[in-house]
Amino acid sequence: MADGVGRWRRRALLRRTALLAGGAALGAAATAETTWIADRRLPLGGGPASATLGNRHQQVGAGVVQVTWGVRTDERVVALTFDDGPRPRWTPMVLDTLARYGVPATFFLVGERARQHAALVRDRLAGHEVGNHSWAHHDLARMDAHAAYDDLRRSHDAIVAATGVAPRLLRPPWGHLGGAVLHAAARLDYRLVLWSLQMVEGEFPHDPAGHARRIVADVQPGTILLGHDVGTEQRLVALRGLPDMITGLRARGYTFVTVSQLLRRTVVV
Description:
It contains 10 helices and 11 strands. The protein has about 270 residues and is of the alpha/beta class. Strands 3, 4, 5, 8, 9 and 10 form a 6-stranded parallel beta sheet that branches. The protein has a 3-stranded parallel beta sheet with strand order 1-7-6, with helices on one face. Strands 2-11 form a two-stranded antiparallel ribbon. Helix 5 crosses helix 6 and helix 7 packs parallel to helix 9 (about 240-250). The mean pLDDT is about 85. InterPro entries: Glyco_hydro/deAcase_b/a-brl (IPR011330), NODB_dom (IPR002509), Polysacc_deacetylase_ArnD (IPR050248), TAT_signal (IPR006311).
């Protein structure tokens, strides 16, 4: 009798476990399906998927947008880039390290943060480069053409006011591209810059040296390396390991350049 009760309880437990797992899977599937349905209903003409606006002449600057992940070159050059700033705790740490080692970098600034923390970057970006990373780090790929342009224009103006430099590069949040993003970038005469290698802070908790070794080993000539000067405590692993990253890459014969310097001397992949 006891054995029978035990078997019944085990079967009941297994059924409950299966139901819970099935429910989680159904929930994830339902979320994905809801997003898919919502995206299908987004307008094409003038909406996020459209790279044209209306049926009159397209006011798109030079009329060309280039998208770059990295470059093909035999030279050992690498471009350091930092997204999402400026922020008080993080950005000065990055700028201090770069100044100590004489390394230039490209900062993709969030316009809202650039306006709020202008003092952090004003007069400190000599030798560096700034790019546009949207006004408030919302997903530009879900905006229509008007909204994407207004967002980037607002951010552009805030970055100019904070740094005195007009950005010519755009990195959309999360690297999400859509037709409206391309259209807005063309109107603003931006070049779209993504990345060919990303810092992987989550794989090296509390191990800045280990993270630095991983990045140094993975860099190839013409790499555009993505880092962040905003985020959670976890991301500090990369920033604390930045000196080791710089010295390790220099030991491999690498020279640091801004993204624009990289693009001027090489052929786009």
